[in-house]
Write a structure and sequence with these properties.
elongated; 2 domains; five-stranded antiparallel sheet; 5 strands
Length: about 180
């Protein structure tokens, strides 16, 4: 059985260039290894060369190949704990409805094209009675999340443009009552 290059808790740097098949993945970023595919799901040698990572400021992402990673330092779960604490502070800030409704949206199109942070969308969906799992769907597909997030934003857009948090909460109460 082949040894794997990285282990849970290793602090790594993701390469600048991930190649064309992974160009949509975040690159040029520090990360902490969550585990290899083999660590998490089995699979023998074939699962020891790709990893699930916690990307600094971005959260978890899978599957990066070992040739995309450079070791910074072994066994640094404290780095992960520090990042997660900072991310939780930011998540609370951007999921606050007052913060969300204070954003400078010009019109409905601006709401639909401006990249609101994920926790903001989750907070808006929660007002309608939906959970983050409802947004992602049963298989956790990004396309499902994207489609459902756009639906939530389309519903919230007139209220966001008008900075009408109270109106949004009233509309959500009516929606949930149906």
């Amino acid at each position: 059985m082949a040894d794997q290059k990285f282990h849970k808790g290793d602090w790594v740097r993701v390469a600048d260039d991930l190649g064309p098949s992974m160009s949509h993945f975040p690159s040029s970023i520090d990360a902490v290894v969550i585990g290899s595919y083999a660590d998490q799901y089995g699979g023998g040698d074939s699962g020891r060369d790709h990893y699930s990572l916690h990307l600094k400021g971005r959260g978890h992402s899978s599957w990066y190949y070992d040739n995309h990673l450079t070791l910074i330092e072994r066994n640094r779960p404290d780095v992960l704990a520090e990042w997660e604490a900072a991310e939780e502070v930011e998540r609370k800030r951007v999921s606050d409805l007052t913060w969300i409704f204070a954003q400078p949206f010009k019109d409905i199109e601006d709401v639909l094209t401006k990249a609101l942070p994920g926790p903001s969308v989750v907070a808006l969906a929660a007002c309608l009675g939906f959970t983050v799992d409802d947004l992602w769907g049963s298989r956790g597909e990004g396309l499902t999340y994207y489609e459902r997030s756009l639906r939530v934003l389309a519903m919230a857009a007139p209220f966001l443009v008008a900075h009408d948090e109270a109106g949004w909460l009233g509309a959500c109460a009516e929606f949930k009552a149906k």
